[in-house]
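Trying the structure run again after the queue cleared.
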Amino acid sequence: MPLNLLTLFITFLKAGGLTIGDGYATVQPLRQALVKSCGWLSEEEFARHLAVVHAMPGIFNINLAVWLGRKLKGWPGSMACLLGMILPAVVILIVFATFFDDFRHFAAVESFLRGARPAIVALIALPCFQLWRQSNITLSTVWIPVGAAIGIGLLGVSPTYIILALTVLGLLYAVMVYNND
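Done. Tokens:
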């Protein structure tokens, strides 16, 4: 498939339709499209870009669309990806805001919402496992994600403090390594 603004828009439009519940649901469809189907990015490039986007403040799927669009086709690519990513959410939001109160008590709607929850969990978990495999975590570095998960999940530490602490530790490590060379 050729890499142009229309194909980027359509690719992100398809992924944007999967953002029910969370933007992380777009990761796997985008990986499939950008890496495997179209070959516009390698698996390593996609993982590297995904790591950068995870560190950005803001709405994940919007950051992902803008970042990947810029990397693939410059600022026009960012706009095409952003429009593709948000269009389904805007349409769904308008429809829900208009009609949800009238339909939320129907058994079919309640069943759909209950059934969508496990699917959303799977769509979020799969990219996490794939990122774990590609991150080259060793026994000497496994304490970082495990410690972050324990700090956030069990101790209730804000993810902001975890990110700040890991940034400071990473900078200190870099200074120590480069000063020894």
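The mean pLDDT is 85. Worth checking whether this holds up in the mutant runs.
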